[in-house]
Design goal:
This protein has 100 residues and is α+β, with helices and mostly antiparallel strands. Helices cover 33% and strands 34% of the residues. The protein has helices at residues 14-33, 68-76, 79-82; strands spanning 2-9, 37-44, 56-64, 86-94. A four-stranded antiparallel beta sheet has the order 2-3-1-4, with helices on one face.
Length: 100
Amino acid sequence: MLYAIVGEDTADSLQKRLSVRAAHVERLTQLQNEGRLLLAGPFPAIDSVDPGPAGFTGSLIVAEFSNLDAAQTWAAQDPYMAAGVFQNVVVKPFRKVFPS
């Protein structure tokens, strides 16, 4: 089943985010290589593809996991959690309807 993982950044976390981004992307690449990643990306803090020093307010990941516990465990082990980038993470089951 698909799960939506929404991480909310702590204030002024851009440098923390950048310092562990490679490890975060490596985990996402692994999901992609396994055919389990539907989409992933950050929420820019301003209305811009590249928000520069304004940074980001969080991230969204939609991926396939065997169950909710597995998705929550994966999210809890994300480098952004360990580095203090995310102040809060919500994991919810997700049903893709569109595009079909």
